[in-house]
């Protein structure tokens, strides 16, 4: 989906949006930001839901940082940000594997209020993205407010407020919970016999062990998702042998990743409007090239996407046997589309092997496949994805009248408009279940969601004490979502992490335009207030 036009935008205006807005760090009523208080202070904080509501933000990844910035902009300074790790960044802190980059172009994968004219590449590296979040958090005065090493174990509705309890026993209470807990962070380990017998170094792609030397080693990678494809491209040059264990082939879209020149960066710095225009173009390309057509599997756009991927395979894999092994038997876009500029090249190197025999077991010396071959390895990487159904869990979330989230989500997670749940008033999720996750900028998604949440917060402040979607609205939304999901490209004949246990896609099944429209104005009739 990356277009060669991306770098040829003519700047049209002068505007420096890098200057951080003047955001006060003082609490509007107490004269200091509440996040600077001690936990004991919090328990004594008198918070009025209307004039000085207290927000508990869980998670300091992309959407937690966004929440803090947006709350401050709205003059809502009574909040705390809790982060279980010792560093912000969420998925970009946890995923540090070689070759990691975002498959959404960097100028779109940035906050709309904090452009970065200095992105080094069209698809910048994970370390650069992590540095960007750290920089934004610092510039907007959010980093100093984050309470690190605070894992929330329980979040309970009590006497009309939310009380959270942390692993270290400390507590806090607030009027609103913003669950910015992320999606892709609980590694999924494969159920393969003998995993614990391997004598070499073995780790999950999201738990990379940087102490393990890789140069000249025999490296095995299990999986062919976005992580594995990037890892293969990054490691093939230094490995003595690289074996990719493929259970299912993937469609791959060619994604050239040119560096931005110093002239281009200077241009972006001086003419920020060029970034605005570039973002609009990329967003349009994602939305019009995919997102607005995912429910119309026969659309010209999805057919073009498929043809694009077929041509990439045909034109770039020479050996017909290897080419057929790499050819998926499902439609492009059914699984999350992989963008890569170097995978086909990497897998055709003399030291690379694509192993399509299924894995029998892991042994001390390597991987034994069903044909009896032992693939001897020094390092084994499990690029086997994430437990995407966890969301806020393992946190024990208990709503009104003792309703447990674990029980509500017994058959799989869901949420009204991907944001809220009946019986969990004033608790809002960012990038929660049923949201748009397929090849979009999740930053754009989170920004739209937060503007929706702020409108709900204003309702509570002006009209009531709490608000949650009605059961009827939840049921209607879920019924319509399930019906629409059947017609999406994700339901066109493949397995992926987009599917629930029953095989139905869980992601937002309508157009991105509809998502924007829904997020622009909550249907207030769908909410119950108290
Ligand atoms: O994980 P995945 P991922 N035996 O779930 C295979 C985002 N992301 O970490 O297809 C053998 O996609 C499994 O095989 P199959 C992005 O949203 C983005 O790569 O189920 N194989 C599959 O090939 C992405 O979609 C970026 O048959 C086993 C692989 O493991 C999401 O994260 C980069 C197996 C898992 O693929 C997840 O990507 C990285 C087994 N027992 C991640 N179990 C970018 O922005 C699983 N597999 C570029």
> What is the tally of beta strands?
21
**How much helicity do the residues have?**
25-40%
Helix count, per DSSP? 14
Tell me about the largest β-sheet.
5 strands, parallel
Whole-number tally of structural domains: 2
> Low-confidence spans: pLDDT under 50, at least 5 residues?
1-46
Report the C-alpha radius of gyration, rounded. 24 Å
Strand line-up across the major sheet = 3-2-1-7-19
Mean pLDDT across residues: 91
* CATH A-level architecture of the largest domain: 3-Layer(bba) Sandwich
Q: Can you lay out the helices and strands and say which pair or pack?
A:
Layout: H1 39-44, E1 55-58, H2 62-73, E2 79-82, H3 91-94, H4 126-139, E3 146-147, E4 152-158, E5 161-166, E6 171-174, E7 176-179, E8 201-204, E9 218-222, H5 226-235, E10 241-245, E11 252-254, H6 262-270, H7 272-289, H8 300-316, H9 320-325, E12 338-340, H10 343-347, E13 352-355, E14 359-363, E15 366-369, E16 374-376, E17 379-382, E18 396-398, H11 405-408, E19 427-429, H12 442-463, E20 467-469, H13 471-485, H14 512-520, E21 527-529
Parallel strand pairs: 1-2, 1-7, 2-3, 4-18, 7-19, 8-17, 9-10, 9-17, 10-13, 11-12
Antiparallel strand pairs: 4-5, 5-6, 14-15, 15-16, 20-21
Helix pairs in contact: 2-12, 6-7, 12-14
This protein binds 3-acetylpyridine adenine dinucleotide.
Please explain how this structure is put together:
The chain has 530 residues and is of the alpha/beta class. It folds into 2 domains: 12-186 and 389-529, FAD/NAD(P)-binding domain (3-Layer(bba) Sandwich), CATH 3.50.50.60; 201-251 and 296-382, FAD/NAD(P)-binding domain (3-Layer(bba) Sandwich), CATH 3.50.50.60. 28% of the residues lie in helices and 16% in strands. It has helices at 39-44, 62-73, 91-94, 126-139, 226-235, 262-270, 272-289, 300-316, 320-325, 343-347, 405-408, 442-463, 471-485, 512-520, and strands at residues 55-58, 79-82, 146-147, 152-158, 161-166, 171-174, 176-179, 201-204, 218-222, 241-245, 252-254, 338-340, 352-355, 359-363, 366-369, 374-376, 379-382, 396-398, 427-429, 467-469, 527-529. The strands form 6 sheets. Strands 3-2-1-7-19 form a 5-stranded parallel sheet, with helices on one face. Strand 5 and strand 6 (171-174) form a beta hairpin. The longest helix has 22 residues, at 442-463. The relative contact order is 0.14. Bound molecules: 3-acetylpyridine adenine dinucleotide. The site of 3-acetylpyridine adenine dinucleotide has 26 residues, from helix 5.
């Amino acid at each position: 989906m990356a277009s060669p036009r991306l770098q040829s935008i003519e700047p049209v205006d002068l505007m420096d949006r890098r200057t951080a807005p003047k955001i006060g760090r003082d609490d509007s009523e107490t004269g200091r930001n509440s996040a600077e208080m001690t936990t004991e202070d919090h328990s004594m904080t008198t918070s009025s839901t209307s004039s000085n509501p207290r927000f508990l933000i869980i998670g300091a990844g992309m959407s937690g940082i966004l929440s803090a910035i947006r709350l401050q902009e709205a003059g809502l300074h009574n909040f705390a940000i809790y982060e279980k790790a010792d560093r912000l960044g969420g998925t970009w802190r946890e995923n540090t594997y070689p070759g990691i980059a975002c498959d959404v172009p960097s100028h779109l994968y940035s906050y709309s209020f904090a452009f970065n004219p200095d992105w080094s590449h069209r698809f910048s590296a994970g370390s650069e993205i992590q540095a960007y979040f750290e920089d934004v958090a610092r510039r907007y005065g959010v980093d100093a407010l984050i309470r690190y090493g605070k894992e929330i174990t329980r979040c309970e509705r009590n006497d009309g407020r939310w009380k959270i309890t942390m692993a270290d026993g400390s507590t806090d209470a607030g009027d609103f919970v913003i669950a910015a807990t992320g999606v892709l962070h609980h590694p999924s380990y494969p159920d393969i016999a003998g995993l614990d017998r391997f004598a070499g170094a073995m780790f999950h792609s999201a738990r990379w062990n940087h102490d393990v030397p890789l140069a000249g080693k025999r490296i095995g990678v299990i999986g062919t998702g976005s992580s594995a494809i990037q890892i293969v491209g990054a490691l093939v040059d230094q490995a003595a042998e690289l074996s990719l264990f493929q259970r299912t082939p993937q469609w791959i879209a060619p994604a050239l990743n040119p560096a931005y020149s110093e002239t281009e960066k200077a241009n972006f710095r001086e003419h920020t409007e060029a970034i605005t225009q570039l973002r609009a173009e990329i967003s349009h390309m994602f939305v019009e090239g995919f997102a607005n057509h995912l429910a119309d599997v026969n659309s010209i756009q999805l057919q073009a996407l498929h043809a694009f991927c077929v041509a990439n395979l045909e034109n770039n894999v020479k050996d017909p046997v290897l080419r057929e092994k790499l050819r998926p038997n499902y439609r492009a876009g059914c699984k999350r589309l992989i963008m890569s500029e170097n995978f086909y090249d990497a897998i055709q190197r003399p030291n690379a092997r694509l192993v399509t025999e299924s894995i029998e077991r892991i042994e001390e010396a390597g991987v034994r496949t069903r044909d009896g071959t032992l693939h001897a390895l020094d390092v084994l990487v499990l690029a086997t994805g994430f437990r995407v159904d966890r969301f806020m869990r393992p946190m024990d979330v208990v709503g009104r009248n003792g309703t447990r989230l674990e029980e509500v989500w017994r058959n799989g997670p869901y949420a009204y408009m991907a944001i809220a749940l009946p019986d969990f008033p004033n608790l809002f999720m960012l990038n929660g279940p049923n949201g748009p996750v397929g090849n979009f900028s999740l930053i754009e998604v989170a920004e739209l969601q937060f503007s929706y949440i702020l409108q709900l917060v204003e309702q509570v402040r002006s009209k009531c004490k709490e608000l949650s979607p009605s059961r009827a609205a939840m049921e209607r939304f879920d019924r319509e979502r399930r019906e629409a999901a059947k017609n999406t490209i994700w339901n066109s004949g493949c397995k992926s992490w987009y599917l629930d246990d029953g095989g139905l896609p869980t992601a937002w099944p309508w157009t991105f335009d509809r998502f924007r429209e829904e997020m622009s104005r909550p249907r207030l009739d769908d909410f119950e207030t108290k």
